[in-house]
Design goal:
Layout: E1 4-14, E2 19-27, E3 32-39, E4 43-49, E5 55-62, E6 67-71, E7 74-76, H1 83-95, E8 97-109, E9 118-129, E10 140-145, H2 147-155, H3 162-174
């Protein structure tokens, strides 16, 4: 059986968003190994389709990559927050839109080799425009792009964020346009 049993745990760092631990584990073959694990509360991302068949993407500077990235609207789960409630909140905060129709597409681990962050993907449509309400430390630009414009930036390799790539692949493969 493929498993690893934690036999020792050391807290390395506890921050506002993540916790880092060093684990000693017993492998299924009986040998010991060490793992450095980032614990994350999870996140949501939202694939949107406006009534005009436009996809909402945001551009946001990401310090970790030192780049401005194209992304679908997204955000971190608060403690014990329902992922759908988080998705609704983040869509309104980042774009000003409120959706009537919500569908969970699925979920995935962003980097399972060292991080437990689970990202829930939602599809939102039948949108009505409200007002943006960004977090104090959040600066981004929102764009409504045609499907052809989305395809173009994908083909140019300009989508470098994995959650956005996954969401847009779903759009191109599954959604009837």
């Amino acid at each position: 059986m493929l498993t690893e049993k934690t036999v020792q745990e050391e807290l390395i760092f506890k921050g506002k968003i993540i916790t880092v631990k060093k684990l000693k584990v017993k492998l299924s073959n009986g040998k010991d190994a060490f793992r450095e694990i980032v614990e994350h509360p999870g996140a949501v991302c939202i694939l949107t389709l406006t009534n005009e068949n436009k996809v909402i993407l945001v551009k946001q500077y990401r310090k970790a990559t030192e780049e401005t990235l194209w992304e679908v609207p997204a955000g971190k789960l608060e403690k014990d927050e329902d992922p759908l409630d988080c998705a609704k909140r983040e869509l309104q905060e980042e774009t000003g839109y409120i959706a009537e129709h919500w569908e969970k597409i699925g979920d995935f681990y962003a980097s399972p080799g060292y991080c437990n962050e689970l990202i829930h993907i939602y599809f939102a449509k039948e949108l009505s425009k409200g007002s943006m309400n960004l977090d104090e430390d959040e600066i981004l630009e929102s764009y409504n792009l045609s499907i052809d414009e989305v395809k173009e930036i994908m083909q140019k390799g300009q989508i470098r964020d994995i959650k956005t790539q996954v969401a847009l692949q779903f759009l191109l493969l599954k959604v009837k346009l």
